[in-house]
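Researcher: Next sequence.
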Amino acid sequence: MPLLRPTPPVLPDLSDRTVLVTGANAGLGRWAVEQLAGAGARVLMACRSPERAARAADVVRSQVPGARLELLTLDVADLSSVAACAQAVDTPLDAVLCNAGVTETRGRQETADGLELMMGGNTFGHVALVAQLADRIAPGGRVVTVGSIAHRWSPLDPTDLQAQRSFASFRQYGRSKTASMAFAFELDRRWRAVGRDAVAVAAHPGFALDPLSPARPGDGVPAALRAVAPPARSFSQGKDEGAWPLVHACVAEGVRGGEYWGPGGWQEMTGRPALSRARDHARDPLAGARLWTAVERATGVSFPIAP
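Model: Next structure:
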């Protein structure tokens, strides 16, 4: 007997909110855009490829007639693109969802600025983006970074954030996600210290797979793969469901700064949004402060902390 899909969470009316989503043209990002737009939000889709962004926007509009979508060009692995994207945002933001990223590479690769690709794109580029958008985060606004189950076994090595001494793709991915979460927790600590009316949180999608997601035009999932995927639902879920905790962290009522959201099922791999437990090495204030300094030094971008 096939496992039933859980009922999607009910979102509040978002017609008065604007959310920026990075990596919005595919996977979790595209599903987050569809869910946010479906609840009425104005969504800024920040994507590396304008062509893929336009196609994704058309898909969202086919599901959400009248969706309010705007396209921005953003390559989080290129600091000049990050700066140009931030400069192009001319409206207050109720949430920024830092979703874009790289999950694996064949050997150590570098960004346009010479940073290791996963750490540079997944974390450093997003920190630089949020830093340059800080004055446009609306009162009560949120910054949400996407973490991962992989952070559990991936403490940071502050002496080798760029994996110059030793590189393994799976390990560096986990460390980049730990770093993204550590940034969110450190940002929230610093904003609270100065009384800023904004919060930073982290969220993760559990174990989310494209073949378990509802079909959408151009999603690239072969029908044969979608047909044989259902047994995986006992331990995984679709990217649409994986986006639920991310969207919840962005817009749901009752979310507080410094929280970590994910699926509420077994081992946080599937299920509706629930509070998760981030490992101590991601919450460590000393690790967060060291990371903050390293990002500012490597990117040349100073993060303004103002009330």
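Model: The chain has one domain: 18-299. The beta strands are 18-22, 42-47, 68-73, 93-98, 137-146, 198-203, 208-209, 237-238, 260-263, 273-275.
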